[in-house]
Amino acid sequence: MGHITLDNASNNDTMIKALETMLAARDVSFDAHDHRVKCFTHIINLCSRRVIDAASGVAGDKNTNSLSGDDTVPSSPIPQAQAAVWAIWGSGERRHAFNCNLQNGNQEGWFMDQLSKIVKVQPLQLLQDVCTRWDSVYHMLTRLLQMRPVRPYPHHCNIC
Q1: Is the torsion defined by CA of 71, 58, 136, 105 positive or negative?
Q2: Rounded CA separation 142/138 (Å)
Q3: 31 CB contacts (<8 Å, ≥6 apart)?
Q4: Is the whole-model pTM more than 0.70?
């Protein structure tokens, strides 16, 4: 019997001990402690989530994606980014308006960089973070930075 990779859930401890007992009853040598390998990427995800939550001022496992349009906007950058993406993704109408705004802005030269130079913004979708993927916050923030000149509602959608 080889090694088994599992996440850190306590029920996996129970399962691997039960497997050890079942194998021992069949005269198969298996040491639950020695043959269990904790999943490194899961540990990275847990550590990253703690760092992200600490940087965001989020306590515990609070789901920041539960913000609706009526909720108070958080003051930390990561929850603000999550709230903005969630607000746009939360409605087909808002996604359409955002895409129209992107199209209009590129056609009309609305978007400027930090040096006040007119730029065109690539028509990309915003990315939501996923709590089980530690790098998804990074990808969400990177995409928001790419699309930074775009604002959801400054102009009416007259092209779409």
Answers
A1: positive
A2: 6
A3: 20
A4: no
